[in-house]
């Protein structure tokens, strides 16, 4: 089965297709979605909230203007994806996802427009970025607990 979220490590492992629900995502909802994942801490990065595992930051929230994409003046977030995940998300929802300009974007960093993205797509993106930032033992634990092996 072809998965519309083929860029998401978690969905690809599970092999399921998520239901898409249209809604605007608030800053509070975004924070709650990130903090719901295991071993996530909220920290400050560049003056804005960021979310990290012990290993690294996987998402930065920009409640106002996004310095990585100056044309974006509404709530957005940047995710650390692999370049393959970035391509999958940007191709699946080009109105919601776009590469960060320059070198960071070439490494996979991607902006999501919170006022445009569908909740299930955002959930998939958060899980994928988190999974990539999680330590290997936490990745393994997550796969086992969610039947993804």
Automatic annotation (TrEMBL):
GO MF annotations, alphabetized: DNA binding
Question: What keywords are assigned to this protein?
Answer: DNA-binding
Transmembrane residue ranges: none
Concerning Pfam families, the annotation shows: YjbR
For this entry, the protein name equals: MmcQ/YjbR family DNA-binding protein
